[in-house]
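Slide 14.
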Amino acid sequence: MVSIFEMLDRKKVLVSDGAWGTFLVQKGLKPGECPELWNVEHPYSVADIARAYAEAGSDMVSTNSFGGTRLKLAHFGLEPRAGELNEAAARLTRETISPDKAVFASMGPTGKILMMGDVSEEDVYEAFREQALALERGGADALCVETMTALDEAAIAVRAAKQNTPLPVICTFTFDQIGEGQYRTMMGVSPADMAAEIVAAGADIIGTNCGQGPEQMVGIVEQLRAAAPDTPIMVQANAGLPVRHGDVDVFPETPERMASFVPALVKAGARIVGGCCGTTPDHIRAIAAAAKKLG
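Slide 15: predicted structure.
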């Protein structure tokens, strides 16, 4: 097993990967199709994504398991296959990338809102527990509870992962800018609130992904660092904010421009830098080159 903490001891900045969803669409994923089903029906296409990011310079590569809880898979009638699809996701990345690179396995929101009574806390815990165990079986080195907006769901996911596996747990939230220097999730959570609650739940690494381009992420990272000075921070920015061109959303940030923000993100407190929506292996290659210059 690869230790992310040992990797952090050796390098000032680790590089994670970029977008998976856009990549799957480029490979033929159709609207309304279940991405996680591709882990068993199109494994070579999924493995190609992991390989592309590893070759671009990612120290950590994710898994095609973002919507892998049984609560999310129920939309496709696939909830009985949650264990199989998550285990396959982790195994594909683990078998594709080199042994010295880490697999950080994606665990996204369930799509249910606890405060609305859509689902019980026990059901959410069990869904994340099942997913975490399957990802561990597949060879994950860490678990990443990502793109969260609600404290209750994220804290349950972190606890389910920490209490049922020995793996390090990363947790990232998605924040919107609501004013100058002010950021909140769609559920009203600030970076400081997130840091306090999620560290208390047991997260080993916290951070932010999606929602913002790299320039706006600097302020979010600064606020996370102020609230949790001893916890490593990961940031995965979008390639800017999307611009609608006809029927397509285009992300405007070039690899070079995204990479130019790496020093500022690291100065703000980030130890792991990668990309989210709109980013490609070219973006990660540029980010990796910028990170290398920092030592």
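Speaker note: The domain at 20-232 is CATH 3.20.20.330 (TIM Barrel).
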